[in-house]
TrEMBL record:
It comes from Microlunatus capsulatus. It comes from the Bacteria. The keyword Transcription regulation applies. Residues 7-64 form the HTH lysR-type domain. The lineage of its organism: Bacteria, Bacillati, Actinomycetota, Actinomycetes, Propionibacteriales. Gene3D superfamilies: 3.40.190.290, Winged helix-like DNA-binding domain superfamily/Winged helix DNA-binding domain. Belongs to the LysR transcriptional regulatory family. This is Molybdate transport repressor ModE-like protein. Keywords: DNA-binding, Transcription, Transcription regulation.
Length: 303
């Protein structure tokens, strides 16, 4: 705890200026203050210290013996403050020049590239590192200070995190051409829940979003296959392994080219929210704030 007898840094700097210049007026001019303001600060400083620090005479102002001692100590304090200021400036510069992003597979592959292009145009000095992982791991990375900003696709956000919706997505049931479901008008939610599917891993945002959407129809059937990437799920489904549920963002190209076919679902809402996440107790760095603003603006434009 700082002693109540210690003057502030500006007052200490004024004392050193008086010692060098020998004049309250010149010290005032050097610091952009009026002479009465400098006199008032000096009186306050002397009251804090408890002894006179400056002697005034027609020839100017000089330090008392006590003032010389205080000025010597003040030089060390001000030098340490300069070191602290330089360190803080370095930290702020590092924050402005580096941004660590962790994102779920869907966001990393289909949304972040255009957001990062915009960020690079707005902040060319910022270097960005991106890690793609499942949503659970994203939250862990953000809370563990491995990432400055995260993007997740699950139905809920874990404790200790603030979040903001940055996009809306829809899960789509897809099958290979020739699958029996292509000859039907769709499947009921209960049938979908009871069908063995080609799944992402349990901690993926896609899997947890599907579980939440079908929760009223019982637990999901055991996976037919369990794969760690959307690309692997798409390939297995297109090869005829079985139905899958994936983000429309991930399968749009396959749907456009007929490699996969969509199957309507009755009795379940498969829309979901994609969110940015960051620690609730931490202020975002300027680059993270900028990327969050870009993602939020893109979400408004897509509505």
């Amino acid at each position: 705890m700082v002693s109540p007898r210690v003057p502030d840094l500006d007052s200490l700097a004024l004392l050193l200026e008086i010692a060098v210049s020998g004049s309250l007026g010149r010290a005032a001019a050097r610091h952009g203050l009026s002479q009465p303001a400098v006199s008032a600060r000096l009186r306050t400083m002397e009251a804090l210290v408890g002894v006179p620090l400056v002697e005034r005479s027609p020839r100017g102002s000089s330090l008392t013996a006590a003032g010389v001692l205080v000025a010597g100590w003040a030089r060390e304090v001000l030098s340490a403050a300069e070191v602290l200021d330089a360190g803080i400036t370095s930290l702020r510069a590092d924050q402005d020049q580096h941004l660590r992003v962790a994102a779920s597979m869907t966001v990393a592959e289909h949304l972040l590239p255009r957001w990062l292009v915009r960020l690079a145009a707005d902040r060319p000095q910022t270097a960005v590192s991106l890690q793609a992982m499942n949503s659970t791991r994203v939250e862990q990375a953000v809370l563990g200070d491995e990432a400055d900003l995260g993007f997740v696709e699950g139905p809920d956000v874990g404790g200790g995190l603030d979040s903001r919706v940055v996009a809306r997505d829809r899960l789509v049931v897809v099958v290979a051409p020739g699958h029996p479901w292509t000859r039907r008008r769709g499947v009921d939610a209960a049938e979908l829940a009871a069908t063995r599917l080609v799944h992402r891993e349990p901690t993926s945002g896609t899997r947890t979003a599907l579980e939440a959407a079908l929760a009223a129809h019982g637990p999901l059937a055991a996976p037919l296959l369990e794969l760690s990437t959307s690309t692997a799920v798409r390939s297995a489904t297109a090869a005829g392994a079985g139905p899958a549920v994936l983000s429309r963002l991930a399968v749009q190209d396959d749907l456009d080219h007929g490699r996969l076919l969509p199957v309507p679902v009755r009795g379940a809402d498969l829309t979901r929210l994609l969110r940015a996440v960051w620690p609730a107790a931490r202020r975002l760095s300027p680059p993270a704030e900028a990327l969050l603003a870009i993602a939020t603006a893109a979400a408004r434009a897509d509505r």
